């Protein structure tokens, strides 16, 4: 066999496969011509037909990854003289597809070819004595009961075995190739990365620049809206800053402070910061009384109702002179919360030049500016940070003054609640909408200070309406979802309680990506409408373990959302996207976008169509 193997390796797989297809066809035809003379030969003929069909199917499946045109693929299997077999690159494509198993596959098809050659040699003897004896005598001579029958059965058994081995090898290579060359149908939108960068730089700027002289404040919490928008070089973010007061003051009735509602534009440039023409954008189309955003009352994402700035205006960025900035920061203000210095150009356009970092108290300044009833200028100031070669400018606008009066229960704007508290009230459409928002949030805010790896639904807050009695109330509440971070940051002991050793999570619990795993847990909690820990009477070492246990037990609670939803949750928990386990890699993010975000979008459309909602 060594000589045969060498010959096979020298020739390649393609000519051997072509020869096998010819041999099967010839053998079947010869057996068919004798089958009506003897039941033994009829049985042989049937088994050869089965073997030939198995090989043809394996051959077609083997060709599928290397031949793009389905019609050409089918034609090649049916016709050994097809022009497709003569393509010079076909053998190389086979080699590329089979990889390290190329020579093994070649040896298998050589074995099949050799068995067929031996069979054809034996069958050729049937054609030698047409004139010497009758057809019946020739058949009995060729298929002697004691020798020939056993020999043919042995060849048939060998063909079945090698066909099965070829099929197994082909299936394994297809599976490996599928996992190795997975390409998401959709690429994750570029704006997700822009929002990811802008949100992290905003957090860093706030941490570096934040100041507060109010003795009653012991901390501050920034709540960033899950909804964001990117236009050209600007990212539009919305944030609420809540002041945490001392317990003695917080407990007093009516002492809760209204949060500071802000709209922030992040402008990214490659220009150096030290230029003599540094000014903030002039908002040419901002009305005297700005149209502020009010999250709970909108049916569209919050960023669509912010002050709309014409794209051309956004591109026309203007900056104050350094001398003007220095004068502004050096002049003592009568009150820490005074109005920012404003300047008007020849067209009467107003814009602020206040560097928030230069104020004595950023907290007091923003609070007074936002809550002032006579504040005519929505632009409050800016923060700036640089990461060579890029410069990030964050321009702050008030976003809550006018709409405060539109809320029937103003207290609802003062406190936020974790979203998990309203799971029981969610309809199927609300469940899918919430899941969709969280999936996008993971892609936008993963690996930032806004979203911890071990996050859960307790970390996602909302500003609920007065009573959440109607579906419209819940819909509006879902438009106010926010992620939170503290100023100053939480102590290391507090963070230690939440974080766990990544190696322990990976090797002990099999958690490949904690952020995605917690997204899967959140999807299940939304589906079950309850905390994952309440689904089992036993205490589990980690919520992901509880989620896996819940997935293994069929539940009617998840029936309405269907198998696609359950599959998504399982994929996230196991990080089963065939694209690694690092969300910083675009391939994995695109896979999550395709398999989770886009799938949820399709499910939302299907459900709206089903219930007759546009």
Q: What features would you describe in this structure?
A:
It holds the Pfam family DUF7580. It comes from Byssothecium circinans. This is DUF7580 domain-containing protein. InterPro entries: DUF7580. The chain has 614 residues and is α+β, with helices and mostly antiparallel strands. The protein folds into three domains: 179 residues, no CATH class; 223 residues, no CATH class; 195 residues, Orthogonal Bundle (Transferase(Phosphotransferase), domain 1). 48% of the residues lie in helices and 11% in strands. The chain is built from 21 helices and eleven strands. Strands 1, 2, 3, 4, 7, 8, 9, 10 and 11 form a nine-stranded antiparallel sheet that branches. The chain has a two-stranded antiparallel ribbon with strand order 5-6. Helix 9 packs across helix 14. The radius of gyration is 36 Å and the shape is elongated. The protein starts with a helix and ends with a helix. The relative contact order is 0.08. The N terminus is likely disordered.
